[in-house]
Amino acid sequence: MTRTFTAGETDAGKRLDQFLVEQIGGVSRARIQQLLGAGRVTVNDGAAKASHRLRGGQRVAVEWEAPRPLRAFAEDIPLDVLHEDESLIVVNKPAGMAVHAGAGRTSGTLVNALLHRFGPLSSVSGELRPGIVHRLDRQTSGVLVAAKNDAAHRGLAEQFQHREVGKAYIALVHGSLAEDRGRVETPIARDLVRRQRMTSRRRSGREARTEYRVLRRFPGFTLLEVEIHTGRTHQIRVHLSSLGHPVAGDTLYGAPGGLLGRNFLHAARIRFRHPLSGDALEFSAPLPAELEEFLRALPPEAAASPAPRAETARKRSK
Prior knowledge:
Layout: E1 2-6, H1 16-23, H2 29-37, E2 41-43, E3 46-47, E4 59-63, E5 81-84, E6 88-93, H3 110-118, E7 141-147, H4 150-161, E8 166-174, E9 181-184, E10 189-190, E11 198-199, E12 210-218, E13 221-228, H5 235-242, E14 265-273, E15 280-284, H6 289-296, E16 302-303
Parallel strand pairs: 7-14
Antiparallel strand pairs: 1-4, 2-3, 2-4, 5-6, 6-7, 8-13, 8-14, 9-12, 10-11, 12-13, 12-16, 14-15
Helix pairs in contact: 1-2
């Protein structure tokens, strides 16, 4: 369909893309610029660029097709499955794989792989994120739990909400931390300038708590085990960066580029109760080969303990 708008006197001097963002609710400037680039926007029946300055009184026409709602679909992608039962799935997610579709990415996600391997999953999180109870950043590897049905999903979600799930990560950070153990409790909020980032510099942030202990020290790096007691977006990355020790490879939060091609952050262990039986469960995943190789290439300075090797997946029941 074609939608038409008339630029008023108050719109004189505005860029065309800015004007259309204001007129069409819920659409991004990037989407408008795509339409302009495809020649689907005219001003007084003539082609126009995003930077076109309106004069007022002009007729703007847009060949508009509302984006179709995203739905997850099955896709044949290899999965490292640590555990499966009638209620849940535990996988070792590789770095580089998004958990679900979004931000222009619809294929190659963990959800797509889960749907292909296991069929229908819980519907609590909606059609875009079936089965997803918690997430890992795209460049973070490690253990992740998904729910097969709604009852399991709600039981797991309640444990996350009440902070009953234990999560331990392995992180390599730049620099040498002064103490062998520490805690960070600064709130976390969205960065108002760089929207893809989070920040610990806003007082209006949400409560966040991270604890760490040193596993090994190298020249220029420190290897940590990190436990989080809240689940804020980018929590470990933000908190360690706020100490002046960004995660290796994490250029978004201040690490130099060209080291790894990914973040040195790995979800090594998770502990929770089975949502139906109540049994205590614990699963773990070893460091990926690329992280092991990076560690081996570092000259040791002083070892606090042997290099961490998470055990293979296991289950413990009370």
